[in-house]
Amino acid sequence: MLGFKSTMLRKIFHVIAFLIIAALVISTVANNDPDDASKQAAQLPVLLLAGLYVGFMFVMYILPALTDKATHAVLSSNDTTAREPIHKAQAAYARGEYIEAIALYRAIAMEEPDNRLPWVEIAKIQHDQLEDPEISINTLRTALEEHEWPADDTAFFMSRIADIQLNSMDDKEACIAILKQIVETFPESQYSASATHRLNEIEKAQEQEATV
Predict the structure, then answer these.
(1) Which of 177, 127, 189 lies closest to 153 in space, CA to CA?
(2) 171 membership: H or E segment, kind and range
(3) Nearest of 208, 178, 183 to residue 193 by alpha carbon
(4) What is the spatial distance between Cα 211 and Cα 157, in angstroms, rounded to a whole number?
(5) CA trace torsion 147, 148, 151, 154 (10° rounding)
(6) Which of 66, 85, 107, 130 has its CA 20 to 30 A from that of 113?
(7) What is the pLDDT of residues 11-69, one digit of tens each?
(8) To 10 degrees, the CA torsion angle through 146, 149, 155, 156?
(9) How far is CA 111 from CA 82, 84, 142, 148, in A?
(10) Judging by beta carbons within 10 Å of its beta carbon (0-12, 13-18, 19+), is residue 18 exposed, middle or buried?
(11) Contact 201, 162 (CB under 8 A)
(12) CA-to-CA distance for 164 and 167, rounded, in angstroms?
């Protein structure tokens, strides 16, 4: 509420100042006599004041608005350019053109080697849409081999491989080996606790199967 009142007061002040200066300029120009040196000299302070006021208004209001608009245009352009490849890949996926989507994601992976998203999306398409868990695992392993990832990214890829090994290929031994490797190699990773929990679940399931 105080901010609104302050803004209104500033607007009223500038309107009044503008009207006063405009009236002075009009009066000075109206009473100007080219042959009267005193009147010519008298109008200089008024014109100078008007010029200073216009300059002040330009610096305070017009220039910041132009700067903000230009900055927004540049950022919007950069954001659109940066997102265009991923949008194309997502559009291809939405159309059901999975091979094209994979190719587009591979191109992104080459352009952005530190970005794990393209690899994850490729493996997901191969697993879910092409129904080929083995090639999905190979994609994730390729990602691990071709780039040195931060601990969390590496553990994420390994965790995803373990998921596929267990749920899609019914290879409990391979899954357990990977989960143990996550716990041992990345104890500080956010995926370590998850891997431990899943190991416990697999162990309990195996015990239940043994008692049946």
Answers:
(1) 189
(2) none
(3) 183
(4) 34
(5) 30
(6) 130
(7) 676 667 667 767 766 766 666 656 555 655 666 676 676 667 666 666 666 656 566 56
(8) -80
(9) 11, 13, 16, 15
(10) middle
(11) no
(12) 5
Q: Which amino acid is at 113?
A: P
CA dihedral 171, 174, 177, 182 (to 10 degrees): -100
Three-state SS annotation for 10-67 = HHHHHHHHHHHHHHHHHHHHHCCCCCCHHHHHHHHHHHHHHHHHHHHHHHHHHHHHHH
Which long-range contacts link 141-147 to residues 24+ away (Cβ below 8 Å)? 143/109, 143/116, 143/119, 147/113, 147/114
CB 136 within 8 A of CB 127: yes
* Closest to 167 measured CA to CA, from 121, 122, 205, 208: 205
Distance between CA atoms of residues 140 and 143, nearest Å: 5
- Indicate the pTM of the whole model: 0.61
Burial 89-112 (b: 16+ CB within 10 A, else e): beebbeeeebeebbebbeebbeee
Query: Which pLDDT tens digit goes with each residue over 112-141?
Result: 999 999 999 999 999 999 999 999 999 999
Domain ranges within the chain, ordered by starting residue = 82-130, 149-212
